[in-house]
Design the sequence.
């Protein structure tokens, strides 16, 4: 759990620095910075997704994940959680570039869905190797600094799902290490990187100019797609062994 803990603490510290030390940057700088980060996120997402070896499985995963995510409506529940925390902590209006909930949801999705989150957490659990999560902490910290300045204190609370999500993957990996092949990890990471690219698209095309979220990709509702390759390839393996 050392890697997930370090990652979460980095998000907390850098978000606080952004909120209280570099807040108040001119709005035109904020907008350009968001779009610059968005372009970088799109690039990283697409580059990671290109590791995919089974294009049809990726499509199936996105379709099935979208259906499941919309059925559960993860996006709505995450926003409700953010709004609830905002109200309980009396932090209404704490984010300049958006609400507390927007900062919380956006940062949570970005920090949890990429390949580094999945592969790094698995390596932490399987081999006690935290190097990927340490590198991810540097990236997340840099982004938290900017997001904290522009979106407010909601970004800090994304450290909670980061710790829970990555810690759960690390612990689960220890329990099911015999069922996780490199191929499964590759396909799960590819889907996760597609979601990262989608989040970058939202930043570049809609950054702060779309309060009703029209046309926005509800990336949270695509999160179940990450785990479809695991289920699909697990069933596929059972069928082959049965044959």
Sequence:
């Amino acid at each position: 759990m050392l890697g997930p803990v370090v990652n979460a603490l980095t998000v907390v510290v850098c978000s606080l620095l952004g909120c209280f030390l570099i807040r108040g940057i001119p709005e035109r700088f904020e907008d350009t910075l968001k779009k610059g980060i968005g372009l970088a996120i799109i690039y990283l997402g697409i580059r990671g997704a290109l590791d995919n070896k089974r294009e049809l499985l990726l499509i199936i995963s996105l379709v099935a994940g979208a259906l499941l995510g919309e059925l559960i409506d993860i996006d709505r529940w995450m926003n409700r959680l953010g709004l609830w925390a905002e109200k309980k902590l009396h932090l209404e209006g704490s984010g300049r570039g958006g609400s507390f909930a927007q900062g919380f949801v956006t940062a949570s999705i970005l920090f949890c869905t990429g390949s580094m989150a999945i592969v790094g957490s698995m390596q932490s659990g399987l081999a006690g190797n935290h190097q990927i999560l340490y590198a991810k902490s540097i990236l997340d910290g840099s982004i938290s600094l900017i997001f904290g300045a522009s979106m407010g204190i909601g970004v800090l609370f994304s450290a909670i799902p980061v710790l829970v999500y990555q810690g759960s993957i690390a612990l689960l990996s220890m329990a099911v290490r015999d069922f996780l092949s490199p191929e499964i990890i590759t396909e799960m990471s590819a889907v996760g990187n597609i979601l990262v690219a989608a989040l970058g698209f939202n930043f570049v095309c809609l950054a702060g100019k779309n309060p009703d979220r029209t046309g926005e990709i509800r990336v949270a509702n695509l999160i179940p797609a990450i785990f479809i390759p695991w289920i699909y390839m697990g069933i596929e393996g059972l069928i082959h062994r049965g044959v």
